[in-house]
Fold this protein.
Amino acid sequence: MADQGIFKTMCPMNCHPTLCGMTVTVEKGGGIAIAGDETNPDSEGFLCMRGKAAHEIVGNDRRLLKPLVRQSRGSADWADTSWDDVLDRIAGQMQVVGREAVGVWQGHGNAVNDYGFGLKRGQMERFANLYGCHFWNPAMTCWGLGGFGLGLTGALETSTKEDLSAHSDLVILWGVNTVSQANTLRHVERAKRRGARIVAIDIRKTEASALADELILVRPGSDAALALAMIHVIIADGNWDAGFVAEHTVGFDALKAHVQPMTPLWAQAQTGVPADSIIALARSYAATRPAMIVIGGSSLHKGDNTWNAARAISCLVGLSGNFGRPGGGIGPRHGSRSHGAGFADLSAADRRLPGTYVPNQMEAVITALERGAIKVFVAIGSNFLSSFPDTNRVRAALNKAEMVIAYDIFPNQMIREVADIVLPGTIWLEEIGAKATNTHVHLSDRVLPAAGDARPAYALYQGLAQRLGVADVYPWADQEAAMNAALDHPATGHATVAMMRAAGGRVPLKISHVAYPTFDFATPSGKIEFHSERAAAMGLPPLPVAADTSDGSGGLILAHGRTFAHFHSFYDHARALPTLAAREAAPEFWIAPSDAEARGIADGDQIEAWNAGGCFRARARVTARIPAGAIWIRDGWPGLNALTDGAAVLPDAALDAFSFSVGQSHFGARVEVRVTQGGEYPQGLS
């Protein structure tokens, strides 16, 4: 750390697998300037609007800089206090309720200089394991359910963007948009210039669809039906890869019988895609080698798709024989790793104290709060209230806890509405960290001193461990030493922070650009499993299935995703950063012209979407870029999840199938929409 100079770091957003390098110029007087790092092999100097706005985090007068204690539940009166006072209060309450009544939840905010590397998550888990309290993996709110479907098939590894641009002759962007995979999309463009054909499958005309040779619009929640109909066509035509299927898969005969009734006409009713288009896509995919499918990371797996879309798509890839081959298989997606990637695990999972723990499932966490099993709840870098569906139920559940603590850098919905204690966190430039893409691990060095009384998250664990008498929670001399311990892995070449600094701020990971190069798949059989006995043992369908989305049960299907100006609820829903707040002054619902006309809605009207769960107000954007029957909005707006379904998707027997969390709720919604007069937009918006 120095007073002035130019430093390399990483963007404080977590758009994995798009993680972008930055150069930060610290100016005389403490100001900073940010630019893209042209030497970064992943981003090559690129920064999107979110990254370019990151300089507005520094010196922001909305930052949390003092520990705060709410004077009484439900009031807006806060008092400044000290870290020692707050840690005494928290530890004292933890001692009163007992360790098994304490739960720790972390969100994306704990990984702004750590995503893909995972040290800070491991440190939080180490505290929870050695102390013996509840903690949950945040993958359940994002990509975990899609990972579950892929994992049942045996397709968790992904090939790299570099392999895509060099070798793929067909690229299918399935629920993928440039706003969340900008660095991947640059390689898709390179593949196109080389002659590859690009197909986009989505629920709306996205930014990425401009790059595609063909756009296929599907009804939200019907992607599994489309994939199954494509499998039907390929099998009916006799165009599957017979050699790969015979040698590297199990369950083909069962799959063949299973998809026999799943014809293109059946899928047309489910998806809204004409049967002829389904046939043409299936035949094009089967005939083109190598072909790569890039699968969306979060929104694709919410609503009626759940885990079965990823399950069906990965079976489609297995049928085509594209796994384990340059340019084929499944491309980079949120939460995935390349073959051979990894870091040392510091979480002390083998030393976890025995206890009756709430499993990694959203419904289970909320139920535990409702019945009083979780009395002290700690949220680290998360707007828990906005992250979970069925917001009104979540708020009521949190209010049943005796103490709710939030560690963050800006106020957010959870802090305003339910937190009792707030701890100020350091921003990404005020502490050392690292972020890992599918090919590299990049250093995010400390550049600035911590502002105010802000402290890194490990100070919370250290302080609580000292007061609670928990040994060995932080056995390292400092965070650089902890990073060295995590980096001590064959995939990094046993790198150290010093080695990374000497190499320009990064080291390449010793990985294969092609997933599953040895054709050894992560299933009990070691093969791609069309039919999964493991799924059957969990009480789940052993073959991929599709929800029935053709019944027209009324209302509009609510769908959501990202925009250039936001990332979930980061930075107070992007309201704290003026550039991003100006780009999206208020929430917008995309609605098709026919649906708008039927409801008397004009472009720019203030409208209200409502169902039994609640209501949400936004401006109407009447556009032909979304098909009739659906309504779309970017996620993360405070209050939006009052509309979404919090029902559990998987049984308890499935929750520990993989190392990541798969216990996502349904998150789907059907809504009605009407013009509304007056009223307010969500918290703090106008």
